[in-house]
Structures are given as C-alpha cells and as structure tokens.
Amino acid sequence: MARRSGRLSSGREQVAKHKRAASGSTELATTTKRPKKQQATPTKSQYFEGNGHDVADPELEDESDPPTADETASEFGDGSEASAESPGPDEDAEEDEDSDEATPRGKNSAKGAKVWKPGTKTGLGPGKQLVIKKPKAKPAGKTPYTDGTIHPNTMLFLGELKANNERSWLKMHDAEFRQAEKDWHSFVETMTQKLTIADETVPELPVKDVSPWFSAAWSRTGRKSTYAHYYIQIAPNKSWVGGGLWHPEAPYVARMRSSIDSNSRALKEALSGETIRKEFLGGVKKNDAAVVKAFVKSNNDNALKSRPKGFSADHPDLDLLRLKNYTIGRSLSDDEVVGHSGAQRIAELLSAFEPWVTFLNSVVMPDQAASDSDEEDEDEEQGSDDEEE
Asked: How far is the CA of 106 from the CAs of 36, 92, 218, in angstroms?
C-alpha cells in the first residue's frame, strides 16, 4: 500500500486551515503572523561615503565637553555641533526595503544605485564610526591666564589664524578661538574701567558695544558713534593704539575746518601735551610748527591736494584745513601688548588721548549746540570734498 504524503490535504477540514479567517472572527485574534526574515546587511554609517575610503567629519568634537551657553554666542558660528550618535534601531526598521542599505551584498538595486559594502576598505566593522576630536586649547604654560591682560597664546592664535584664514580651520580650532576671545574680552572689560576713570564722559558699556573682533573702540556712545574714539587693536606685529576722528562725515569735517579757521590755537594746545608729543608725534619739541607738521603727516593719506572750498590759498593753517581725518596713534610691539606690563602700558597710552578726544568732541558734538538750522546747512556745504585751485 502506497504511503500517503503528509503534505497533501485530505478533506475539507485540512483545506479550511489554509483559508484566511473572516474579519472579526475569534480565530483572527489568536493567530500570529510569522515575522518576515530580515536581511543581515548592517546599517550604513552616516560618516562614510560610498568610495570605500575613510572620511572623517571635521565638525565632530568630543561630546564629553560641550560648549557653554556663553561660548555659543561666538561670531564664527552659532555653536551648533554635529551629532556623533548612530542611527537607532527604529530608524533602521523604517528604511525602505528597496534602499541601498537593504540591497544584498554583491547585488545592485533595481535603480542601479551604488552598493555600500561595510568594512571592505575602511578597516572598520559594520556600523562602526570614526570620530576625530577637535584639538584642545593650548595649555597656559608658565604664564597663567589673568583677567585684564593679553596672554601670549592669544597673540599666537591670531598669527595662526592669519596663516590659515579658512572657516574649516577655525572650526577645528574652535577651543583655541574661544580661549583667545575670552582672554580679549577680559582685557577689554578691565581697560574700559580704567578708561572711564581717565575720561568721565565714556560710559562703562558692555564688551559687545565696544569690541567687534580683536579690536575695541570707546566713545561716549560706544564703537558705533559720531563722537571721537579711543581705539586699540591687537595682532602679531600689527597691534595699534590711537584716538580721534577717523573718516568723519562731511558736516563734522566742516565743523573742524570752521574751528581751525577761527581758533587753531585750541587744536594745537590739545596736541602739545608731553605724552602725546613723545608717543604719537615722534617726540617733537613743544612748538606749533613742529606739532602741526607731525600731525598733518600722520593724517595726510586722504587729505585734499589743494585748498578746501571757501578758504583762501594763503590761509596760515591751510595744511590743517586740507585734512579729513583727525587721529593720532602708534604701533605696538607684541611685548608692549602681552602680560601685566602690556596692560599697564596700553592704559597709559589710552589715557593720554583724553585732552585730544575732549577737544574733538567739543567741536563736532558740543554739549549745547549753538548753531541754528541755517548754520547746519552752511556746514554741510563747506564739508563738500570739492576743492578750489
């Protein structure tokens, strides 16, 4: 007698077992659908490309030391960092079965997409990631960081930044930038306090109102002002300290020319102080001719070639009338900037500008304006860049 195959159905009862239960039946509630066998292809790492070479994301940094809220206010960035976490299992489950990640090894998808083969050339196992930590800030070394002073590392960073003036480099050296920025802000805060003592008209404004980068400009209303400024900038071998009116608008140039025309003695006296002559005018002697000559030389870059409109060619102060800038200043070596001695030196130089800044403000922005609208119109006309032969 032939043996009966167990795979064949014998009757309606066996056939009914393969029929789908009617909707709403009690048999459906107890029937469990066998899960589909999952493909064994590992998840593709988001930090590698399909060319098989190691590719590191330059924006990744050590998550164990995230930036503080204050640090994220940097001007180079919004403080956002790339995530170094792997995709979770839920994300893998939701991927399309027809995607490249779900394609079996050695086969191409229907769309002809490149097949990612994990671990074939990177040397890393499936699902592994390569994370390169951003460099830490340089250690202070033998010179500790001190509030109100410029640390040598700050000057070193600015030199390296100039040599690598790329955003990608700055991203990788974010810790050094933030350390240098913090050092500079501490210096500006301390210098603001000292300057407000030397000139009571200068308010104690926040750092952001006087410092746009590694430079600072103080005035009665901050760095964005029509008042005369005290100014300092730092850079390796290019630091500079100065004060006065830089590229003032035409009405203020007209007021300066009117003041020189009617009473040039006031300007000359403001420039005749011992510290100003020694530090900013080449050490000239205290006489009007020498002081004026040195001052004109330092502001001659954009001066008029001939006499300004409305003034005679034989005016005794024609050299002063030709000017459109009214500044004095000097370069600083790196040794004159860093450390406690540098901070003290800069404070002394900024304080020496007080007579000059006060004089300029008394001309261009007097506390009590004495001119009416007609005089204002006349000032604007005289402030034209037109010159007469």
From this structure: 22, 20, 68
Q: Is residue 355 part of a domain?
A: yes
Residue with tokens 């502001």: 299
Domain carrying residue 87: 46-133
H/E/C letters for each residue in 235-297?
CCCCEEEEEEECCCCHHHHHHHHHHHHHHHHHHHHHCCCHHHHHHHCCCCCCCHHHHHHHHHH
User: Is residue 81 in a domain?
Assistant: yes
Per the CB < 8 A criterion, the answer to whether 183 and 151 are in contact is yes
Are 253 and 381 found together in one domain?
Answer: yes
Distance set, CA 245 to CA 153, 173, 211, 242 (Å): 32, 36, 17, 10
- Answer yes or no: are the C-beta atoms of 186 and 180 closer than 8 Å: no
- Tell me what pLDDT residue 122 has: 59
Helix, strand, coil percent content, the chain, rounded in steps of 5: 40, 10, 55
pLDDT, tens digit, 9 for 90 and up, residues 247-306 = 999 999 999 999 999 999 999 999 999 999 999 999 999 999 999 999 999 999 999 999
Taking residues 330-345, report their average pLDDT: 95
- Quote the number of domains for the chain: 2
End position of a domain, from candidates 117, 133, 149: 133
pLDDT digits (tens, 9 = 90+) for 40-99: 444 444 333 333 333 334 333 443 343 333 333 333 333 333 333 333 334 443 444 444
Statement: the pTM of the whole predicted model exceeds 0.85: no
Residue 217 forms part of a structural domain: no
Q: What are phi and psi of 146, to 5 degrees?
A: -130, 135
Domain boundary among 83, 112, 133: 133
- 282 dihedral zone (left: phi>0; alpha: psi -120 to 50; beta): left
> What pLDDT, on a 0 to 100 scale, did the predictor assign at position 275?
94
- Residue 384 has a CB neighbour count (10 Å cut-off) of 13
pLDDT band at 130 (very low <50, low <70, confident <90, very high): confident
Query: Vertex 105, ends 103 and 106: CA angle to 5°?
Result: 110
Same domain, 251 and 129: no
pLDDT bin (cut points 50, 70, 90) of residue 127 is confident
